[in-house]
Each structure stands twice: as structure tokens, then as C-alpha cells.
Design brief:
The chain is α/β, with parallel strands linked by helices. It has 2 domains: about 5-145, Rossmann fold (3-Layer(aba) Sandwich), CATH 3.40.50; about 190-330, Nitrogenase molybdenum iron protein domain (Rossmann fold). The chain has helices spanning about 10-20, 55-70, 80-85, 100-120, 150-165, 165-190, 215-220, 240-245, 260-265, 265-270, 280, 300-310, and strands at about 5-10, 25-30, 45-50, 75, 90, 140-145, 195-200, 205-210, 225, 235, 250, 285-290, 325-330.
């Protein structure tokens, strides 16, 4: 069987590809793909139009403006894709704000095919070194992932494995991940208390984490507030959180690590009523690495569940994520 040449344009898909054992088959990645660390040496096939160094509010304003003009938030380098000659490109349709979309890739593939043909015209021996066994100018297979809940995450793992011709690897991987999640659920189900938790996916304006996060909360032994599994994350008003008054608050902004999240906290903590929240008064406000964990629907959804278990039931669970996956907020 000829080895595939894979380009992943979404960080979670890169993790899936590598967990399936195809890291050596990757020839390109997105600008956001950084795990496992070895993939950072690969050529970068995308870039963002958003200045990610701005504040949470500034980033949100930029994204809204770009999307309002019916434009993509990302650029895909069609010329580079042509040079890399992938046989499989993995992208997503779940959120056009979070990663390169199917539409972006389809447009780039048109350029890719033209680029490959042009290069073939310039260098007739383009494939003589065995870089690819497919016919120059043939289109790569596009695998578009659309995870809305945990079931979809596992379905996407199977879709990637099928695309590269090794579906049996998905069964092994998903079985292992499911067993680990079931072990957490079994242990948490025996606990008498199920603390309520607000999972914040964006700080300014406020967004609550939905999709697969409420399911992870349930597995970890908590009760998710302000969110529903299987739905896109949505905006909410601070007054709604005050009314819900959760026992725990976990801040997990999409694309932010712990230090960046800490830097974005002052506007939230300055809101009238913040200090009156039960989670704040009891010191149960936590900052997490939303970039590496909660916003990546791939194999590390298990680690995300482990982090939530540590936050909700620290007297029972300790998977060693404190300091790397989460930390207490100190106002």
C-alpha cells in the first residue's frame, strides 16, 4: 500500500493523524498545529487574517468584521499545497472562525491542481523521486471534520483512518479513549456531590463552552451551566452567570494558553457582582489551557475530562495536570 501524503489544516486533526500512527506521513500543517511538538518542523500551509495579539474584544471585533463581509478568517497557500502534493487534506466545517474551513480548502485545491500541473510542465521529473505515486494534477482527497459532540469526535477519528486506508487503527484508538473516559465516569458517578460549573470559552464578550464540553463535565462529575452539548458555543450576558451562580468557574478561551488567559481576566473580574459569585468567594475560579485541550476535538478530549475532574473533585482526582493544564485564578 502506498503511504499517504497528508496535510492537516486543523490542530485537532493533526493530533488525530499522529495518534493513528501517521505522523511520518504528514507533509504540511496549519499555522496552529503544534502538537505533538515534532509537527512544528513541517511546512505551514495557512495563515490568519486576525491580529491575535489584540485583546479579547479586539479579536472578536476583527472576526465579526471579516465574517460580516463574507470573507474567510484564514488564508490557504495553494501554491505550497501544489509543491507538497498531498493525497489527503484534512480540514473542518465545524467552525469557520476556529480553523481553516472546507470552503477555504476547496478554493485552494483548485489552485493546487493548477500549480501541480504547472510544475509538471516545468519539471517533467517532478514525481521521479517517488514523492507521490498519484498522477500529477489529480485532486487530493479532502476529509472535512464536523465535531459537535463526543460521538462526532470519535466519528472523525474513524473518518481520518478510513481516508488513509487503515480503519482498524481508529477502532483501537477510540476503544482506548472510551475506556479512559468510562473509568472517569465510573469513579465520579459514585460521588454524592455534582458541583455546578460555568465553562467560559471567551472572556470579552462572554461565550459559554458547548459542543463536547458539557459531556466532558458530566463525565467528570459536574453539572454544566449555561451550555448544552451538541450546539455551537454561544454568547451570554454576565447577569446570566450571576443568576446561575455556579460552584466552579473554568475559563478556557479558544486559542489561549493559561498565561494569555490570565492577562485577559481583568475586564471580567472588574464587572460589578463578580466578587459576589460563589465560585469567586470560595476560590474555585480556574484558568485552563483552552488552546491545547478543551477547544481541540481530538484524542486529548480525555485529558480535558481529567482536568475538569481535578477542578470539580480535587479530593478524588489527580491526573497531574495542575500547572500545565490548569491553575487557580488569583485576583
Amino acid at each position: 500500500m502506498t503511504e499517504p501524503r497528508i496535510v492537516s489544516l486543523i490542530a485537532s486533526a493533526t493530533e488525530i493523524v499522529c495518534a493513528l500512527g501517521f505522523e511520518d506521513c504528514m507533509v504540511g500543517r496549519s499555522h496552529e498545529c503544534d502538537y505533538p511538538p515534532a509537527v512544528e518542523k513541517l511546512p505551514v500551509c495557512s495563515s490568519s487574517k486576525v491580529d491575535v495579539d489584540g485583546s479579547s474584544r479586539a479579536i472578536d471585533d476583527q472576526v465579526r468584521s471579516i465574517v460580516a463581509d463574507a470573507l474567510s478568517v484564514y488564508r490557504v497557500d495553494g501554491r505550497l499545497l501544489g509543491e507538497l502534493a498531498p493525497t489527503v487534506i484534512v480540514t473542518q466545517t465545524q467552525c469557520e472562525v476556529c480553523a481553516v474551513s472546507l470552503k477555504d480548502v476547496e478554493e485552494a485545491v483548485c489552485e493546487l491542481v493548477s500549480s501541480i500541473q504547472a510544475l509538471d510542465d516545468e519539471r517533467s521529473d517532478w514525481f521521479a523521486d517517488g514523492a507521490s505515486s498519484r498522477h500529477p494534477g489529480s485532486e487530493p482527497r479532502i476529509v472535512s471534520l464536523a465535531p459537535m459532540d463526543l460521538g462526532d469526535v470519535f466519528a472523525d477519528i474513524r473518518a481520518v483512518a478510513e481516508a488513509v486506508g487503515r480503519p482498524e487503527r481508529a477502532e483501537r484508538l477510540t476503544a482506548g479513549l472510551t475506556a479512559r473516559l468510562d473509568a472517569i465516569r465510573e469513579r465520579s458517578s459514585q460521588l454524592a456531590e455534582r458541583p455546578t460549573i460555568a465553562c467560559i470559552e471567551w472572556i470579552d464578550p462572554l461565550m459559554h463552552a458547548e459542543n463536547w464540553v458539557p459531556e466532558l463535565v458530566e463525565i467528570a462529575g459536574g453539572s454544566a451551566m449555561l451550555g448544552e452539548a451538541g450546539r455551537h458555543s454561544g454568547y451570554f450576558e454576565f447577569e446570566q452567570m450571576m443568576e446561575a451562580d455556579p460552584d466552579v468557574i473554568a475559563v478556557m478561551p479558544c486559542g489561549f494558553d493559561i498565561s494569555r488567559t490570565a492577562a485577559e481576566m481583568p475586564p471580567l473580574a472588574a464587572r460589578p457582582g463578580w466578587s459576589d459569585l460563589s465560585a469567586v468567594k470560595s476560590g474555585r475560579v480556574f484558568l485552563t489551557d483552552g488552546n491545547q485541550y478543551f477547544n481541540r476535538p481530538g484524542p486529548r478530549v480525555v485529558e480535558s475530562a481529567e482536568i475538569l475532574a481535578e477542578l470539580l473533585h480535587p479530593e478524588v482526582f489527580d491526573f497531574g495536570h495542575r500547572g500545565s493544564g490548569w491553575t487557580e485564578w488569583v485576583g
